[in-house]
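User: Can you help me understand a structure? I only have the sequence.
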Amino acid sequence: MAKVIYLSGNYVVVTDANNVDRVFPIGMTVYEETAGNFLISEGQVEREQLIIPVSDAVNWVDNDGTNYTESTLRDFLRTNTGSSSLSSGGGGGASWGDITGTLSDQTDLQSELDDKQDTLVSATNIKTINGASVLGSGDLTVGGGSGIHTQMLPGGSFMGGLYTSNRLFGGSNYNLSTYANNVIYVPFIPNNTFTTTELNFFCLTGSAGDENRICIYSHNGINMPQDLLYESADIDMSTSGTKTVNVTRNWTKGEVYWFAICQKNGGAKIMGMGGSNADSLIIGLVNTNYFTMYRQTFVTYTNGAPTTANPNSNLLDPYLIYLK
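Assistant: Let's start by predicting it. Here is the structure, written out as tokens:
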């Protein structure tokens, strides 16, 4: 006997090869196409279920005895039942509880779905903070909650050179002391990406037998120097004048570097800036007093500069270090 499927009133009527009749109420019937089968079930709880292999569509007829094709049976099922999400892709007829019909016809529901925010993907459609994802539960602390905060300013330019301060000879320069077996750290933030071939500073007062070294340290990400990146050879401080180190360095705009002067005897004096002037690079506050350099004491000069900076004090007046 032929297998029959047709519409009668508000029901889809099915007569299978065993002459068994079943009826599926239109408003409660869901159709989906999966794994090579047409699957028809009544409601979300499958009280009645019919599976028709797609390849068997041609063996079914309507109530006039006309054979279906795969395409015409699919069209019949889509028209007279609700299509589930597995087959419709969200665009055809569907069933949502007691609501049936075509999704695009449910204008209020379609509008809400259109306005729904896309899934957030870190660094794709939502930014990160310092490289860390902001997605997830809990609290994300931005910046320090206590301690010394940094107010480091970008370097300025003068006659083709670059200072580690933004001061441009706006006032008097100072004759600053050095300290035996100390390392003094000064921050530098380039305002451009560039390459230099010299580092130098000016010795205002020489001291027999005294020596210094210029060093460069990385930044610890908060407000302190961290790892030793470069250490020069010994620089003779027995006479006054410009002290030059020939070294090629690449500087990246906005990155924080720390220059350091590793000092031997503490007899020589270096040109610097008066910290009482507001154009110095302020790196921290102690109560109401600001400072512009970190200082590390008890560093044996002959053992070389510390591989990891560990400042234990600070100073107000910064040395001037030039880049060319």
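Now, to help you interpret it: The helical segments are 70-80, 85-88, 107-115. The longest helix spans residues 70-80. Let me know which part you'd like to focus on.
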